[in-house]
Design goal:
Low-confidence stretches: none
Number of strands: 2
Distance between the termini: 45 Å
Largest sheet: 2 strands, antiparallel
Number of helices: 2
Shape: rod-shaped
Order of helices and strands: EEHH
């Protein structure tokens, strides 16, 4: 990144890699945040009593 006067300029390649890194980070974060509750329900369904109260709480 070069500094010209008061502004910092980036080449198109640097800007592209910055977006790619941010997008991958957000994708992984969203995948983990969305997948953990699903795994929680799957493990609970396999281990415990799958009665009407459990099925009422599953809102997928």
């Amino acid at each position: 990144m070069a500094i010209v006067g008061d502004e910092a300029t980036a080449t198109p390649a640097e800007l592209g890699w910055t977006f790619i890194r941010w997008d991958l980070g957000l994708f992984i974060t969203g995948f983990v945040v969305g997948f953990i509750p699903i795994l929680h329900y799957m493990v609970g369904a396999q281990q415990g009593d799958v009665g009407p109260v459990f099925l009422k709480n599953v809102t997928l």
